[in-house]
Amino acid sequence: xxxxxxxxxxxxxxxxxSDLRSTTKNGVIKELVSALSMQANARDILIKNLxxxxxxxxxxxxxxxxxxxxxxxxxxxxxxxxxxxxxxxxFDSFDGKPVYIFFxxxxxxxxxxxxxxxxxxxxxxxxxxxxxxxxxxxVKNEREFLEIVKEIEDKKVKN
Amino acid sequence: xxxxxxxxxxxxxxxxxxxEVNQDKKAGFEINKRMEDLVKAKRKIEGKLQPNFLKRYQxxxxxxxxxxxPVIDGICYGCFVTLPTSFVVRKNRNExxxxxxxxxxxxxxxxx
Lengths: 159, 112
Description:
Chain A is α/β, with parallel strands linked by helices. Helices cover 44% and strands 21% of the residues of chain A.
């Protein structure tokens, strides 16, 4: 079971892009990676890496949610970028539906806290709750997004 | 960044990806392409690397879990030894291909 507000705290520390403009898989990955502060050529390598991962099978988990992720030498610590698209992005999700909420997870090859795998698992689990709840697909800004995340998490802990 | 260093990082990241595909499957992500496609991409990068760097990378990869490691605050994150001052004060970091003088791994510098 999640600790109270565990993901909420992680999401508060992450970058949230509430106005994704791209409508393609490549475009949206570039847009999400652009939120990370890193050198331009390092960013290009990371984008290629993420697209190679997508080439193996989409990280679109269905119901409008995708969790692109990768480990790379190019980051010092675990990074999480959340992206919200109003138009929806064709992401080759297994249910064929466009994606509106993105969770980009990037981590170095080794990290003592193991945040990457733990968060990946928790976000995948949380994605099911988001899909059932439905409100996060209509949020207008980052604050509203976080408030609803907190509500969903609190509700889950109470149950 | 030096082109050969970029290729070494890409090769390194691809090796991690190859190792983690199975973990992704277990986590419930859909993997519908064959591993051979990734291996092909790896061969392509290897083909662009200078033969001496490739040979060194392969030897290091056999010996250690990581053949390319970051340097953070002057410390090699492969062997965790502080690099000599002559390395640390160097300008144009990442503009060449460097090795840790202690463990011989390829090193990549993070901006301090």
